[in-house]
Write a structure and sequence with these properties.
alpha/beta; Rossmann fold; Dihydrodipicolinate Reductase, domain 2; nine-stranded mixed sheet; 9 helices; 34% helix; globular; Gfo/Idh/MocA_domain; Putative dehydrogenase; oxidoreductase activity
Length: 332
């Protein structure tokens, strides 16, 4: 590969500082060139750990830097559309945090703006870059657990006491469906290779938290009678698991979404008996960065195109509408 991809970080969110930026440094393909924050002192503190990186006191200054090839956008959800479109207009390739936007319409506008500008766009669902998911798919395809009959997923945590958290701003795209419910929905689509036909979601909205959905439980109906049952929340104990139920066995996936280097193993209970399947210890964030950089530098197809993000947003739109209307929403 040629020169490393030079990244600019738009905003100093925790996910950027503690996960994505270290992953860029660890990656084979990329380097951090700049960080922008509305508080320049914060940007300076962040770049102090990255030799040669520039601190900017505005996002506009970073986008004007001709040295920067790509930007990572970890801003609050309601700002994803604006800064993705502005970055595309500046000729920057974009890795944007999930969910890509607030609606499917917004996500489509973002994808089209990037296509028109000739830049790459990717949604930052790092979990699916971990090789364990390819292992799981191969086991499912082998028939060891029989035909897939159902999927179950959960992702929850509890920080409801932090009333100033951006997740509790309705106008900023807060709520559990956007923050963590998107993961089991994405995983089900990934494993089944198809889109839900209908969804039904029941949610708990909290007046103390700007009426965002603090908990949600849902059913996503896929073709062939297969369904995903899931729950997500910011008002319950920490859980992140996924289960594949087959006619002849199951695959249990602990640490399904926040997978580190030492907790990627999963359990197969199928026709060959019960075993713990070992998976390699890798940094999924770094693999996500490398996949993106190789698409930009080498023309290698992205593993997950922007159209996948648009499709996931269509499902999230339907889930949120179902929770508000207390109704089953069809997608086709």
């Amino acid at each position: 590969m040629g020169d490393k991809l030079r990244w600019g970080i738009i905003g100093g969110a925790n996910i950027a500082v503690h996960a994505v930026m270290p992953a860029i440094r660890e990656s084979e393909t990329s380097v951090i060139a700049a960080v922008a924050s509305r508080d320049k002192r914060k940007a300076e503190e962040i770049v102090a750990n990255y030799e040669g990186a520039t601190a900017y006191g505005s996002y506009e200054e970073l986008l004007a830097d001709s040295r920067i090839d790509a930007v990572y956008i970890p801003l609050p959800n309601h700002l994803h559309r604006e800064w993705t479109i502005r970055a595309a207009a500046a000729g920057k390739h974009i890795l944007c945090e999930k969910p890509l936007a607030l609606t499917a319409k917004e996500s489509l506008e973002m994808a089209e703006a990037c296509a028109d500008a000739g830049v790459h766009l990717a949604e930052a669902f790092m979990y699916r870059h971990h090789p364990r998911w390819e292992q799981i798919r191969k086991i499912v395809d082998s028939g060891e657990i029989g035909r897939v009959r159902a999927l179950r997923g959960a992702f929850s945590f509890n920080n409801a006491g932090d009333k100033n958290n951006i997740r509790y701003r309705a106008d900023w795209g807060g709520g559990s469906l956007y923050d963590v419910g998107c993961y089991p929905l994405s995983a089900a689509r990934l494993l089944l290779g198809s889109e839900p036909e209908a969804v039904t979601v029941h949610a708990q909205f909290s007046e103390e938290h700007d009426n965002v959905d603090m908990m949600a439980s849902g059913l996503a109906e896929f073709p062939g009678g297969v369904s995903l049952t899931f729950d997500c929340g910011m008002w319950a104990s920490f859980r992140q698991n996924f289960e594949i139920v087959g006619a002849d066995g199951t695959i249990d996936i602990p640490n399904a979404f926040l997978t580190g280097k030492d907790n990627a193993d999963f359990i197969v209970n199928g026709q060959n008996g019960r075993r713990t399947e070992q998976s390699v210890g890798v940094n999924a964030y770094a693999l996500q960065v490398d996949d993106f950089a190789r698409a930009v530098r080498n023309g290698q197809p992205q593993r997950f195109a922007p159209s996948d993000a648009v499709s996931n947003m269509k499902v999230l739109d339907a889930c949120y509408r179902s929770a508000l209307e207390k109704a089953r929403i069809t997608l086709i």
